[in-house]
Structure prediction request, 231 residues.
Amino acid sequence: MAEQLTGLADDRALLGRTSTAERVSDILRSRIADGYFPPGTRLSEDGIGGALGVSRNTLREAFRLLTHERLLVHELNRGVFVRVLTVEDVEDIYRTRALVECAVVRGLGDPPYALESLSAAVTAGRSAAAADDWKAVGTANIHFHRELVALAASERTDELMRSVFAELRLAFHVVDDPRALHEPYLARNREILESLQDGDRGGAERLLETYLTDSLERVVEVYRRRVDSAP
Prediction:
């Protein structure tokens, strides 16, 4: 936890002069999405409040917001923890992803599309794989899908999916072989990008639909095995 708090202190500047619970929750959500706080981690009010330089009341409100988003859970007389997902949670996350992501691609309109950020996420994933950093590959994969959703230019959709992708990261943490999970999707992300670069949003949607179906099956299989074997 000491190392985590040291890194979290670097985020204090993001709070600016108008520190709010919403901004604190944004920081913690991003940290959870990037795998900084694994599932089951107990979040210390004193430690995190001190690292960010915020009051206990502000932090508790941020915890409440993230609990409402299903990223945290409050356990009576024990404190606040990063949530451990169930298999049913994982299935629901993927149902939501399929509904939203495929609809975004379907509704893109006429090309060309603004794909610079999507392309950067593909490049980041390939660079992380070359460095054998499979946690970073998982992060790049989430960034790819976040940028895909951002093509809709909808703040409400971005906000909805921000917490969904953060929950997805919680599922990834349970996987004991991240390379086996993430490596196949490096090429598939590139294929979706290339279809959009060609202006073929129908082809991109078909690739994405198959992608999400295959990913769900793979994640649930591994997740169920790990959860069932947990003490």
Observations:
- The CA atoms of residues 74 and 80 lie 4 Å apart.
- The two ends are 23 Å apart (CA to CA).
